[in-house]
Amino acid sequence: MRNIAVIAALLIGLSAAVAADEFEEKALRIIELDNTTQPSIDMMDEMIRSLQPMMINQMYQDFTDQGKAVKRETVVKLVNEWRELVIVEFSEKMTPLLVKEYRKHFSVEEMDQMIQIMETPAYQTFSSRTPEIMKSAGDAGERLGQELGQKIMLDLLEKYPDLR
Q1: Residue 85 is assigned to a structural domain of this protein
Q2: Residue 110 lies in a domain
Q3: What CA–CA distance (Å, rounded) separates 148 from 143?
Q4: Which residues form the DUF2059 domain (predicted)?
């Protein structure tokens, strides 16, 4: 009787491990088909690049305030190397993070259905164009936000003549 319980426990554990591997395999296929990670990596890199000049200036100022004889070029190299390492590590950790999130929300059967849809030519066209669409829409949204922000502030300043 005890041997049967041990064998049953081993089989249950083994089938759970196989199911976990099956799920991860399907999640990785979805990530590949959906081109999920690269746009996120590109967005992170772009965000860091936009902050780099401010980071360099602030770090250079902080080092000189501390009395350190540092060259600006050294701070530029430091920040560039930091950005590269952050992007590499972000890239490596993004896929396991997505697999974990998919595991929370989808069954293996649902993953199979999504893969069937995602392997179609129409979906592949959609997926390949999505990063460009999101970039363009993001740029347009940023411009719209700036325009609205400026317009609304000018309108509000009309209410407060002492601030003009």
Answers
A1: yes
A2: yes
A3: 9
A4: 92-150
Domain extent for 94: 2-119
Residue 146 lies in a domain: no
pLDDT in tens, 115-163: 999 999 999 999 889 888 888 988 899 899 999 999 999 999 889 888 8
For residue 94, give the 3-state DSSP assignment.
helix
Determine, yes or no, domain membership for 30: yes
Is 60 in contact with 70 (CB distance < 8 Å)?
yes
Report how far apart the first and last C-alpha atoms of the chain are (Å, whole number): 88
Give kind and range of the element (H or E) at residue 23.
helix 2-34
pLDDT in tens, 63-110: 999 999 999 999 999 999 999 999 999 989 999 999 999 999 999 999
Please state the domain count of the chain.
1
Residue 146 corresponds to which tokens in the numbers above? 């700036």
